[in-house]
Amino acid sequence: MAQIGLRTGPRRTGLFLVITGAIFWGISGTVAKKLFLQIDVNWLVTTRLLIAGVLLLALQFLIKDRTQIWGVWKNRKTAFQLIVYGLVGMLAVQYTYMASIQSGNAAVATLLQYLAPVMIIIYLVLRKHLVFTRKDLSAIFLALVGCFFLLTNGSISQLSVPKIAIVWGLLSAIALAFYTLYAIPLLKQYDSLVIVGWAMVIGGFGLSLIHPPWQIDFKSLTLETYLYLAFVIIFGTMIAFWFYIESLQSLSPNETSFLSSLEPLAAVLTTVFWLKEPFGFFQWIGVLCIIGLILLLAFNKKSSSNNQSKEDISLSE
After folding, report:
1. What span, in angstroms and rounded, lies between the C-alpha atoms of 314 and 53?
2. SS3 for 91-149, per residue?
3. Alpha-carbon distances, residue 99 vs 91, 202, 280, 289 (angstroms)
4. DSSP states along the chain
5. Cβ 117 vs Cβ 294: under 8 Å
6. What is the pTM assigned to this prediction?
7. What is d(CA 110, CA 267) in angstroms, rounded to the nearest whole number?
8. Which residues, including other chains, have CB under 8 Å from residue 105's CB and lie 6 or more apart?
9. Mean pLDDT to the nearest integer, 213-234
10. How far is CA 84 from CA 1, 80, 162, 303, in A?
11. For residue 266, what are the CA distances in angstroms to 13, 97, 180, 315?
12. Which residues contact 154 (CB under 8 A, 6 or more apart)?
């Protein structure tokens, strides 16, 4: 069975990119929780997307083929795909994730988001790009058990986070699965800087029509807030999303989503040890189940991919 992906770069580079991006992404979620003490989730998502998107396009202009920046809009089909990717992919991932953090906490939001690998497996099986195995069934079981312990702390009668945080977290997982898979055809034609940069600008512009980023009292923001904001925009958005998509040059989408398991680990550790938010015994079991799930799938796909064809498969076929 063929692996879906570009697979044009060295595997070690892909591993470095996805792991680095995952760590920045996980830490930025916890930093965002601190930011929500002063700013609104809508303002943060709009601002981080617009600024990070412009920075990525500027980077493309300086170090890569600058003609691609506007060339991506010359083909109507590609332009339409890019708009869909920006709104349904980039904006959806950003907004649902941040909304889950604001209504719950960064650790739970990140761990729920990482049910995306299971959703990707289900999609690939339904499209007959992947054979469903016992290991896949075990992985789904781990995901369900992990989520149960994470959200209930072992007690059905009481959820450990608000229900709305769970809803946003699950929507974030769906959005991440779409974000990962939908990028493949676009990356076959254009640099990742162009695709991710424009997706961020499109998503940020779309949300700014509803929540203008200039509607905030900048004088009320402290130096600490600006530093946190800079970290979230540069490391947690610009670099994290760029590295994640760039890793698809050498890893398949299911591998990329699985190997980014350091994101929930980074989110959990920073939430517990920096924000001092308590985690119960069964919640830690839930954390281990979900991280174990992603690692199980990662090693499974890594070993099987050595015996599989590297033929590219279009997701739009």
Report:
1. 26
2. HHHHHHHHHHHHHCCHHHHHHHHCCHHHHHHHHHHHCCCCCCCHHHHHHHHHHHHHHHH
3. 12, 19, 23, 24
4. -PPPS---S-HHHHHHHHHHHHHHHHHHHHHHHHHTTTS-HHHHHHHHHHHHHHHHHHHHHHHS-THHHHHTTSSHHHHHHHHHIIIIIIIHHHHHHHHHHHHS-HHHHHHHHTTHHHHHHHHHHHTTSS---HHHHHHHHHHHHHHHHHHHTT-TT--SS-HHHHHHHHHHHHHHHHHHHHHHHHHTTS-HHHHHHHHHHHHHHHHHTTS-TT-S-GGG--HHHHHHHHHHHIIIIIIHHHHHHHGGGTS-HHHHHHHTTHHHHHHHHHHHHTS-----HHHHHHHHHHHHHHHHHHHHHHHHHTTS------TT-
5. yes
6. 0.76
7. 7
8. 33, 161, 165, 271, 275, 277
9. 89
10. 29, 6, 30, 34
11. 21, 15, 20, 31
12. 280, 281, 282
pLDDT above 90 covers a percentage of the chain that reads: 29
Residue type, 12: R
Angle between helices 223-233 and 41-63 (to 10 degrees): 50
Q: Radius of gyration over alpha carbons of the chain, in Å?
A: 19
Single-letter amino acid, residue 317: E
Report which residue type is found at 81.
Answer: Q
Neighbours of 7 (CB within 10 A): 18
Per the CB < 8 A criterion, the answer to whether 181 and 3 are in contact is: no
- How does pLDDT run across 146-165, given as a tens digit for each residue? 878 877 777 766 667 888 99
The owner of tokens 């986070």 is 161
Length of the chain: 317
